[in-house]
Amino acid sequence: MEQIMIDKIEFANLTYKKIRADMINLGHIENRKGIKILGLFGFNMIRDFEIILDTRGNQLKLYRIDKAGNRITAVPSGFKPEYYQPIKSSSNILFLQGKIGGKILNFCFDTAAETNVINSYSNKSILNTLTITRRSVLHGAGSSRSDVLFGRMNDFSMGNRQINGMETIVSCLDALSEAYGTKIDGMLGFNFIEQGTVCINFVKKQFSIQFTKGNEK
Amino acid sequence: MRKITTLLLLSILMLRFLTANAQYDPDKVCRIESGKIIFTLNLKWSDKEKKEISTLFELDSTLMARVYNGETTISIEGDIWKVVKLKSNLVELSKPLLSKSGKQEVKPDNVLFLMDRWMNFAGNDSEESVVYGVNKFEISNTFNYNNGIAWFYLAGNKSAGHVYISGSFNGWSTSMNPMKPVGSGWTVDLRLKPGKYTYKFIIDGKWIPDPYNNLREKDGTGGYNSVVYCPNHLFELRGSETARKVVVTGNFNNWVPAGLAMKKTDTGWNLPIYLRNGSYTYKFIVDNRWYTDPANPIERRDLQGNLNSVLDIGKPYLFKTEHFKEASNLFLAGNFNGWKMDELRMERTEKGWQIPYILPAGNYEYKFIVDGKWYTDPENPFTTGSGNTENSFLALKFNHLFELDNHADARSVIVSGSFNGWNKKEYRMIQKNGKWIFPLSLKDGKYTYKYIIDGKWIIDPANVLYEQNEYGTYNSVLWVEP
To answer: Minimal CB count within 10 Å: which of A108, B100, B261, B470?
Structure first.
């Protein structure tokens, strides 16, 4: 992979100078979405802000924060978090905990992932709560193949919020777990983020959410 | 007694219906357990139900057939399936989940590609592919289209600070089209061409679909976009004031007898409609009786001998030829009319033969039928296919011309890409002034392509945009902008 230095880049009234970036082919994203993509912003571009992601309002809000992680401006954001969780991060991956079938699971939190994923080798009590609605066989290099399943999560909860019906892929995550050097039970992606307004504060290492969907337990 | 029988019959029917439902529930078919994928199948399912299950879960039809034949171990394409019979017509089909042993991870991109297919993301249906559309506003005075100006009205929200309209007409801009406050709400005028548009309102940063518009489609992120059509035709029937129901139906909606409901006016009935450029036939149905349009003098008999009214939208393309002067009959047939060989009769002119025919922008194949024999158009150098399947090719209102220079001595040059499924034979380029050229009418978006010169694949030397492909070589990239 080639690394390049970007002299100057501006976005949302922010100016970045001398930004290091990886240069890779993003044609596959363009081909899927049919839109031109110049590049992708990594989380480290906005690490020094409190990040509020409101998918319903189609908004990403960035608040300047001080060294302790507190907002510098006093502008009210209208965001009333009802659940907090410390973010565990290892090798730049964020982890969140959620509960399925009474078991606490380690989810890797990926805002760029389009959907959730559950490890197909999870405990029976976890898999039993899923409804499988589709299956497909993906052909990889050589003669390798793998089953990819798609379904709904019927018993997911975070804090005291029960969220039913989130769509998920069921797939083997062993390779991913190995790559990150820690056990991953699943991934939370866009399907999860759209359950409410999400706030991430890297300095405080805190994740919070104001749910707009789901029921209180 | 009769009543009791009916009731009894009804309840038996209900029971049958209920049990049939209980037996067939795709959500209950598949589960995963201890590294195995297990399907519970019912031997009593109908062929339609079996087919749906085999599509949903990618179960090979041969595999299904063998399960239903009572086999207990089925080895197919490297998988070994076990079948166990359960009680009451149920069988369990299972095999170990793939991918564990190989430790090979599913490529994220392939999974996402599957997701697109499964979740049916919005935006797949391009606006141009829409043949017709009529609006469905709950209140009639919230949208109006006149002389190319579309007027939108959003009621209420008086306390809002800023309201914008954002949609396919302004590239979903969040700032280009602010709405103006009026007495009871917000309005905006937009200059729009006839067609289909999707939009939302942004009220102080909150996106909402139009609350009074009942036409909606999925926006791909869990919500809905409102859909509006700017009409380019008014179906109008004068009189029939005492009729209870008047609808219009035609080839644009496959002659569905339910038709499109027309609205009663002071002078009769009407329906504003958007129709894509094309040739249409239609009839009015007044209280279940079919009539041609009394105000339209142009009528055409269909193959069954029924008379229909004819409506042409857009400018026609003139198919013509100066050949075949001695022939007695010439017909035009192509993929635009389902290759019907006796529908489009060409008229004799001083120079030869011609027929005007309306088609939307696009790529078409056609042939002339000369006294029963099929010929390609001798005056059109562009053809696709070969032998009996060689057809004349027409890129109507083409928006891209593929051009290749410096290969004057090549014997054959093909352009192949994502627009034709990378077909290696279809789009043969022709030589003109030392250059190889081929026109195509393409919808907006991204395309990847290559040239095949005498069997050798190359990227377009004149195009600086290219990207790596799955074979480790490169494809040229073409963006077609709106």
So the answer is: B470
